[in-house]
Design a protein that fits this description.
By secondary structure, this protein is an alpha/beta fold. It contains 16 helices and 13 strands.
């Protein structure tokens, strides 16, 4: 029976952050198609402890804690002319394990999740099929960072963007299929790489509609009943999230509170850095850090905001809030890639003044807020169930089919 090697830059469990949500559901879907061998990294020992939860989905598992520091990776990248992303995830142990798994003739498909893991895919594939899930075009993110930076940091970001794109292109040229989370990301990659559309596919994210069910009582939150509640959810050590909440707290919230004096803004997510924690001192702003349950905060929210100025692909935080029937105010960047009707199923606001106006309108018109939230939930149910989004995976990995010719 054909088998699959699944490579991931982060252990795909628990599905509680963007990359893990996608990788977990893809792994789960692949496991229903064929036996899966997992090879992945963990951020730390606590992350590694989740490995046992993946036993039912995999026939073998190799997960190791990643120990390479950014400084060490940066030095190695300069010496090797590589993007920093590669030495950051380099491991002789991982290479050896992958070779061991690929010695099995039954392993006919390699599925690599996130570009860093492409370095573990052998140059000579034989009759194996290689599917590369880039998710987002990471190189474009560093190009965007460079435009906002200055001095040495600008050069660092420009270099990473350029080197990473070169690696992405080379990887896509030898992959049988390259996947992106949205048509916007896929189109950008096709345009910049020159790789034909037939080799670059879209595999959208979905949402677990049973898990994010607004009809279920998800429990109380400490700020409930103290005035209108605006909520942002996300991994707070992720730079675009940190920048977004800082701008919203410092620029948008004063505009909102000038008109709705008791409005509060809750920043909900793990690992806030010192700058994000400092926002807790601002009037009406609360930084929770990690919470046991995100859904109770979404259920308690009067409005959910996603004011990201830099965003790639599809924002899971927006899908989750919409599935919970929350009225969402999103920036154009955060809304890109989400198939929903602006003004009916979510609100798109560009800039602090527009965000404040949209939030104040929703806080003042509860019927409108309810209608948008209800329409959002209906849109998620009709369009974004995981089973429907991942239905193309069987054909893409080609279980039982001969490998296609690579793009190059």
């Amino acid at each position: 029976m054909a088998e699959i090697l699944f490579l991931a830059h982060r252990i795909p469990y628990p599905p509680d952050r963007g990359d893990k949500i996608r990788s977990f559901h893809i792994l789960k879907h692949l496991a229903a198609l064929a036996p899966v061998h997992l090879a992945a990294f963990a951020d730390d020992e606590a992350d590694l402890a989740h490995l046992r939860m993946l036993e039912p989905l995999t026939v073998s598992r190799h997960v190791e804690v990643r120990h390479v520091s950014h400084l060490r990776a940066g030095i190695a990248a300069l010496a090797s002319q590589q993007p920093v992303s590669l030495p950051l995830f380099k491991s002789a142990t991982m290479h050896a394990h992958v070779e061991q798994v690929l010695a099995r003739p039954e392993v006919t498909t390699i599925f690599a999740f996130s570009g860093q893991m492409a370095q573990y895919v052998p140059e000579r594939l034989g009759r194996r099929r290689f599917v590369m899930d880039f998710v987002d075009m990471d190189s474009a993110k560093f190009v965007a960072y460079a435009k906002k930076a200055s001095g040495p940091m600008r050069w660092i970001m420009e270099r990473e963007g350029s080197r990473l794109f070169a690696f992405e292109k080379l990887t896509a040229q030898r992959a049988h299929r390259s996947l992106f989370v949205s048509e916007a990301e896929a189109a950008l990659f096709r345009r910049q790489s020159g790789i034909q559309q037939r080799w670059v596919d879209v595999l959208e994210n979905g949402i677990d509609l049973d898990h994010y069910d607004p009809a279920v009582d998800h429990g109380p939150v400490e700020l409930a009943g103290q005035g209108p509640l605006i909520v942002f959810t996300g991994q707070m050590d992720y730079r675009p999230n940190a920048e977004a909440v800082s701008l919203f707290a410092r620029e948008t919230m004063p505009l909102i509170r000038a008109r709705v004096r008791d409005a509060r803004f809750a920043i909900v997510g793990r690992n806030p850095d010192a700058d994000v924690k400092a926002l807790d001192t601002l009037p009406g702003v609360y930084v929770t850090g990690e919470v046991p349950e995100i859904r109770c905060w979404l259920a308690a929210a009067d409005v959910v905001v996603a004011p990201l100025r830099l965003a790639r692909g599809i924002q899971n935080k927006v899908l989750e809030a919409m599935a919970m029937a929350c009225p969402v105010v999103a920036s154009p960047a955060a809304a890109e890639g989400i198939d929903a009707t602006p003004g009916t199923e979510l609100v798109i606001a560009d800039g602090s003044a527009a965000e404040a106006e949209a939030v104040v309108t929703l806080l003042g018109d509860r019927t409108l807020a309810h209608d948008i939230g209800t329409a959002a939930r209906a849109r998620m149910a009709a369009r974004y169930g995981w089973d429907a989004r991942l239905a193309p995976l069987g054909a893409l990995v080609g279980i039982g089919k001969p490998a296609l010719e690579p793009a190059a």
